[in-house]
Amino acid sequence: MSIFLNVLIFFTHQFMKNKIMIGFYLLLLLSFCISCNDDNISNKNIIWKNKICGKSLIYDIGIGYPVYKNTVVFHSTPEPWGVHQSILFGLDINTGKEKWRLTNTDFSPKKDLQFNCTFGTYQKDNIVVACDNVYAAKDELLDRYERYIYSIDIEKGKVLWIKPFPAEYRRMGNMVRGVGQYAYVNANNYNKFSLLRVNIQTGELGSAFDLTNDDLPKEISSKNPIFFNCFFTPIFKNNNGDDIVACSLSSQYSESPNDLLTTLYVYNLTQNSKVYSTPVSLTEGSNAWINYYNGKIIIGKSHTVYCYDAFENKKYWEKSVLLNDGVGSGSGNDEIMQVLGYDNLALVYCVDRLVCFDVNTGDIKYNVLSSHSIASVVDDIIYNEDNNDLVMRDVFTGKILKRIATGKTEEGFASTRPNVVDGKVFIHNGTDAYCIKAWGK
């Protein structure tokens, strides 16, 4: 207000001295008011924010802002070197005020606390299951890694159990999914891939299934490859109500080490039996991202999207994302980074754009510029971080409806998947936990 008054007094004085200057100062005053109005509009998007870390070092990954009743969980890692000293916060979803916190000592015998499960954790009501993401080479010593899976009651702010991974695995934990009382996590020792199953109440850990080269299609097993990585879908059901999972298994072989052999492997967890397996790609050294939607499996690898039936060995379509239409890279350096399904659409995120296909036909619906940060789709709106802003996008047209930035002196939003619950969007930047109004709220 004092700045506004000073400008007004100055304007009046100048007007009395020189009427010719009236236009200039009127525009100056008008631009000042407009700037104030824009700041007010921006602030109206934010329900609350809480500076949970003053050192600008909140990690991008975390455990995904799980919500239960009136609690939402955020994390910070203010000392991300040596033994990571992290804090897990339970915040009130309506006010952002702290309800509880957990630190490294609460997770003993773990010493290093990173919350680095890259592609998600599993939540069932008040229980969240997370784990260490370990990426050790075939002959690397494991002493430098902690290898645990653990469970948290996010209503009470209490660690329920902590279990070590079996010693035989060297790569594990980049994603946790689940159904009911069981969570599933991928594990690999290069000669064998396992989908591990853990009881979320007790922490009892075992194997849902194990795969070796003998279980792969002949086109791939004949090359005697080693297992490189695996991604898997959320658990889905067939018509009999059985729990099904689909995995994209990538393998390397000595004759062409830059290529990854990709297998689609579909497994019935209820019947403990294979549904089918099929080779997807025998070339290109890229991750094979996978998702399930409405009876279909969507796989994105390098520059190609594949769509398969979820219950029988049938490929519906295969399409390239190299469109060369002037949008984004479009000419060979735009790797596929994420695939989603929603309302008969296959959403394919490349490095700097979003390509949308009709999931039934493979026809292109749109191709728009976009970051590839992990997205959530809720009530026909895509939410993700884009160029440090939170973007809300129409899923059917690709059009950006709203772009929300942090303050001018603050760090931008993290490239994590926002959690959208009851009209609230939860996300963080380097220092603050944010609760933002969802589209239309």
Characterize the structure shown:
The protein has a five-stranded antiparallel beta sheet with strand order 8-11-12-13-14, with no helix packed on it. Strands 15, 16, 17, 18 and 19 form a five-stranded antiparallel beta sheet that branches. A four-stranded antiparallel beta sheet has the order 1-34-33-32, with no helix packed on it. The longest helix is centred in the first third of the chain and has 22 residues, at 22-43. A hairpin with a 2-residue loop joins strand 6 and strand 7. Residues 1-41 have low confidence and may be disordered. It has helices at 2-17, 22-43, 218-221; strands spanning 46-51, 67-68, 71-79, 85-92, 98-103, 122-124, 127-131, 134-135, 148-153, 158-164, 171-179, 182-188, 193-199, 205-211, 226-232, 236-237, 243-252, 261-268, 273-281, 288-293, 296-301, 304-309, 315-320, 336-342, 345-350, 353-358, 364-369, 376-378, 381-386, 389-394, 400-404, 419-421, 424-428, 432-437. The protein is mainly β. The protein has a domain at 1-44. The protein has three helices and 34 strands. The two termini are 30 Å apart. Helix 1 runs antiparallel to helix 2.
Pick out its properties:
3 helices; 441 residues; five-stranded antiparallel β-sheet; disordered N terminus; mainly beta
